[in-house]
Each structure stands twice: as structure tokens, then as C-alpha cells.
Amino acid sequence: MKEKRWIIRKDYDIEVVDKLADSLGVDKIIATLLVERGVTTFDEAKNFFRPGLNQLHDPFLMKDMDRAILRINEAIRKKERMLIYGDYDVDGTSAVALVYSYFHTLHMNIDFYIPDRDTEGYGISFKGIDYAKSTGVKLIIALDCGIKAVEQADYASSLGIDIIVGDHHLPGETLPRCCAVLDPKREDCPYPYKELSGCGIGFKIVEAYMEQKIGVRLCDSDSELTVSQKKNMEMLKLKLLRYLDLVAVSIASDIVPMTGENRVLATFGLKVINTCPRPGLEAILTYGHIEPRSKEDRAGNPEKESYFVKDLNISDLVFLVGPRINAAGRIHSAFDSVRLLLAENREIASQLAEEINNYNSERKDLDTQATDEARRRLESDSSLAGRHSIVLFSEDWHRGVVGIVASRLVESYYRPTIVLTRSTDDLYVGSARSIKEFDIHAALEECSDLLEHFGGHKSAAGVSLRPENFDIFVQRFEEIVARTMPPEATVPEIEIDAELRFSDITPKFLRILKQFSPFGPDNNVPVFVTRHLESNPLQPPRVVGVNHLKFSALSSDSPTAYPAIGFQLGEYYHRVSRQEMFDVAYQLEENFWRGKTETQLNVKDIRFAE
Rounded mean pLDDT of 412-424? Predict the structure, then answer.
């Protein structure tokens, strides 16, 4: 196992922590966690712990939103054919499902389109535009893609087709010439929040359209509304809520920051999923062993709102929903994912979920085979040893799993990694994944003259290049990584939020800690360190599953022994068994098993006393 650096956060002002603890009536550990997340005042804490839809920004602050809504209004008024176009991943398919399902209630002359990963690749394709032309489309709304589709936008325009781009990726030097380009990352876009998912952009389009139809905006002050406007506001909120489950799935799966608007949208999206899930999500969750509560249980516990036997959180969406929805686009067709998310009939949803789960099983086999082969090459090829980066190519790897393989190699070797295969048009295509300290998008920018296409963000990107450029690209990419990556970045770190004693883990502490959710980037599950622990001899350690360590941890300052699970930490079994004293870096979590919930330590690393 690769040794990890333990970095205890100290990037906060202790006076601010003390003042916040006093104003909120909480202990200093809770106040520290808040300040680390940028929450420093009573009002900021109130908004953090009590997210509300009124905290969402005015969608018309987004550059070109007024133009987008005008063009959609025109299309509906003239009964023009519209096409909702999206990427083939979870973010793209959920965005298409959201925008299509709303406008389909207003406008029957509407269709949706997802490009084929193998024959069209990422983004707006010429084939997709040809399809739009052949079916009489006059307006394309492109979601989670399009910000770099300069040539495609010109081609569509030559065919008499307008495009509204709704993207969240970094723009290139030139924006596509469209009737509207919605992207908060545009340099000239004043929208206050820059980290929406692609589906989040789609939601803002729907929000803007609803607001101009109903005549109120979520950001309007309640005190300034008339009685009639207040009724309209409640109607607006109810109508928007039904789409937030899709936004929550996209936020979880696309790993965007869990801050600001994303945190509000995810909070309400989870509430929708947990109380009134759409048939497609309920059907796919059954394959993650998430079952609905029985009718008898619901009748016997009317105060319990949860539809399922346990409350779902962001991690459930990340691990149970996201990979399955992604699998359709990786193995077969992402049209199936959209159909699943749009399904209103439970029987149809169940059939689609079964097909998609089968695709996911096939995907698992393919990515396991490719990952194993990649690891064998890295271990056996001496020319790859000591390199700062990993770039691998194989014609035999399935295009739909190269991103997963790259992620697995980053986990194992902790280096910026690019994994490529051959496309049907004889290009090398694949995915790039990075470590925390390295901006892989910036590195690809320096190689742009060797690439046919690239796009993404600092931690992940898609890339394509001609075979004759491969060797020089590998060399230049390695030189860039070696030159720009700090030496300490090659050792993975565990960022620790605070030191904690077991005696600090009170019911009040756990109750407040739970309110920090939903968790995600920039609001990760807090990591604590507790020192001078030992294994509980009454519950001996054991290795379970594939090298996972289960034990019970004891501290001299508390009578409570906490169950602990350390994934991939089985190598510590013997030392923990010998009752050596150790420090543990961990997250506190609720473990639901056989109808019971208990607090356990999710152990990230163990250090033994010298």
C-alpha cells in the first residue's frame, strides 16, 4: 500500500471559530468544520443548515438566458420542431430527460438525441445535426456539451438550424456562433455561481422559462409579493421540485462541488428521491438492493416520510445509480438511460432497468479485464517505471470503459493518467484523469497542437489524437507533468479536518454533523483523527470481502467501542490483532444493516505507535 500523508487542516482563524461557536451554541469542533467550509457567520450557518429554494440565483443573470428564453418562446409559438441534445453520460442524459420532460408538456413537436460514443464521440456531432435536419428540427438545445462546437454550430446555421448551448465545461478561445451560449464559465458571464452541473444548467433554463410564464422569481422577497404572487410562488416551487431528483443524480455523478446552488439543489433533489421517486430511479435502485418500505410499514409509521427502507444519500446515487445509468452509454445506447429516466409506467421502467443493469454487469467485466492488463503492462515494462505520468493505448480496450480504467490506475499509482483505444474513424480516443494537485486540462492545452480534440476540467478530460502523434504526445505530456507537478504530489494525502476524542462523539454532535450533508467536493464528509486507540479484544479483528479490515476500536477516554471498517486495509490485520496502539484517520458514518443503523468508523488510514 502506498504511504499517505496526513495533512491536518489549519487554514482557519481560531478567533473566527470561537466567535461562531458562541453565536451558534455549538462546540469548537463543529465551528471549525463550518469555518473550513467558508461558513463564518450566524446567517451563513443558517443558510448552510437550512437550504431553501429562495437561495437560488436569478437564472436571468446568466449571460444569454434572455435570448435563450426568447428563442424557445418563438419555437413554441411557431410550433417549430425542437431537439434536446445531450452527452451520453449521467449528467448529459439526466439533463436531456429534465428539459425534454418539461417542454414536452408544452410542445408536442419535440425530440431528443444522444450521440453514439463509438461513431460520433463526445459533444455535438455533424451526424446529430444531419439527423436534426432530416427530421425538420429548427432549434437544438444542447446540454452538457457544445461549448467548443464552433464548426458544428456554423454547419447547423448553414442548414437553417439554431442552437442554444447549455454547458458547464471550460470554453475555448472562440465561442460557437449560436443564438445563445449558456455557460457560467464564460469570462463575460456575470452569473454568481460557476459550478453547476450540465443538468443544473438545464434546470436553470426550465426555471427561467417557468418564472417568465408564472410572473414571479424564486429570488423575489416574500415580503414584497402580493397574496396572488405568493400563491404563484408556491406553485412555481412545486412545479420545479419534481425535476430536482434528476439534478441531484447529476450533481452526485458528475462530482461537481457540493457548495452554493449545488448544495441547495442536491438537498431538495434527495428529498424528492426519498419521498416520491420517479419509476425509473426506483427500478434501478432495486439492483442496488434498495427496496421500498412495505405498505404495512408505511401505514404503521405515517410520520416517517421515507419511501425506502433507508434514507438515500449522495453516496448511494454515486455508487448505485450513476454507474448503471452510465453503463447504457458505455456498452449500448444512452437513449436507454433517457427512456428510463422519462418512464412513467413502472412495468416499462422495470424492463429498462433490467437491461441497463445487464449492461452494467458487462461493463464491470470489460473494465476489470482492461484494468488488469494495464496493471500488468505497468509492472512488467521497465520503460514505464519512474515516469511521472501514465499514458497507455490498446486496440482491445472498449471505448466505454477507458475512463474507469484511468481512474483505477490513478487510485493505484497516483499519477496523472490517460488511457486510450482506437475509434471507428482510426483515431486514438480516451479519457484523462488526474490527481488532486495537478491540472490535467492545462497540460492538455500545452499539447493542443497534437490533439484532434480535448475538453473537460482540471481533474478529468476527454481526448483524441491521430496515431502518428501518439509517441510525441506521450513524450511531451510526460515532460509537462515532470516540470509542473510538485514533488510531494506523488504521495497521496489524507486531509484531516480535526482531531477528535471518542468522548466528543455525543448524540448532539452526531445530529449536527448529519446536517452537514449532502456531502461532496468542497463539502466532503469530515475526516477526523483519533489517537491512542486499541482493538477491542471482545470483538477480534477480521478480514472480510476483498482485503477489507473489520474491527472494534476502543479509547481510554470513552466506554463506547466503535465498529470500524477499513476498505483495502487488510494488511494491518496482524498488527491490530496484536493490540498495538494506533492512530486512526476516519469518517463517521451511519451503517444500515438488517434493519438497524449504527455509527461506525470508515477508516481511511492507520498509523501505529513507534
Answer: 92
